[in-house]
Amino acid sequence: MIDAFLEYLSLEKKYSLHTVTAYKNDLRSFKDFLVSEYDQENFLEVHYPQIRNWIVVLVGENLSNRTINRKISSLKSLYKFLQKTSQIEVNPLSQHKSLKTEKRVQVPFTTKEINAVICQIEVGDDFISTRDKLIVELFYSTGIRRAELINIKSRDISFSDSTIKVLGKRNKERYVPLLTSVVETLEKYLELKKDFSIGLEELFITKKGNKIYETLVYRIINSYFSTVSSKEKKSPHILRHSFATHLLNQGANLNSVKELLGHSSLAATQVYVQNSLDAIKKVYNQAHPRSTKNENK
């Protein structure tokens, strides 16, 4: 039952291995609870009071409401699948309401911080520094996700029209333009890469010639930005967040930003609008004659 559901997520929904693994771990956690508390393994015989008791246990383990909601969401998706495949008639979570969570404030890097990092990485004949600079530049100039960057193939680069093909969520392809400065770093990187990789399709590799991996990409971004920023979060996602926020601050169309980010709906892109509005309000309050900051001048 669970194996069929995970296969459905992977093959039909086109979820990434990372996401499928997260679902698997959440469902295993609930199964362990059922066995421990009710000596029961059959998901088809579960009733909502049992799930509610699991939530109480999770709260008692001091898990955040956000984490608990994710686990329940995984379980709810399983039961929707079981309904779809006619294995159950009623979803025991159909009336469940998620626990309240505080909104996470994603603080983007400033252009000054980003430029400082790009300037501090000197590109010469050193493969690692050239690769790292290209990674930073690609994240900030394209807004791609970490998984998307890792899976870029060398053949996905088009130098003729300065674009890169990105394979996004659910295998949705999109083409993202490349800045001239990024193309220059890219050309330098590919030249140096020849000495480290033979026949590997992936664009980004380790110094041992293997495909780059998620934790390494995170460490690269965190390491460089820790030298210029005191922000709590310094991750590839914050660079994606910075990309979108800075474009909107400069007057970019929301639909255009949506396409560049690879979002399926505007609702997903609008999360970045708040930072843009904050910047607009700041300018407005500083410039408008009737602003309290200016009315005494």
Structure explained in plain terms:
β2 and β3 (173-177) form a beta hairpin. A three-stranded antiparallel beta sheet has the order 1-2-3, with no helix packed on it. It has 297 residues and is mainly alpha-helical. The chain is built from 13 helices and three strands.
- Per DSSP E runs of 2 or more residues, the count of β-strands stands at 3
Placed side by side, the strands forming the largest sheet appear as: 1-2-3
CATH fold field value of the largest domain: hpI Integrase, Chain A
Strand content: under 5%
Oligomer: single chain
Indicate the radius of gyration in whole angstroms: 23 Å
Which stretches are low in confidence, meaning pLDDT under 50 for 5 or more residues running?
A: none
List the helices and strands and how they pair.
Elements: H1 2-12, H2 17-38, H3 48-60, H4 65-84, H5 111-120, H6 127-142, H7 146-150, E1 157-158, E2 163-167, E3 173-177, H8 180-193, H9 214-226, H10 236-249, H11 254-261, H12 266-269, H13 273-287
Antiparallel strand pairs: 1-2, 2-3
Helix pairs in contact: 1-2, 2-4, 6-8, 6-10, 10-13
Summarize this structure briefly.
This protein is mostly helical and 297 residues long.
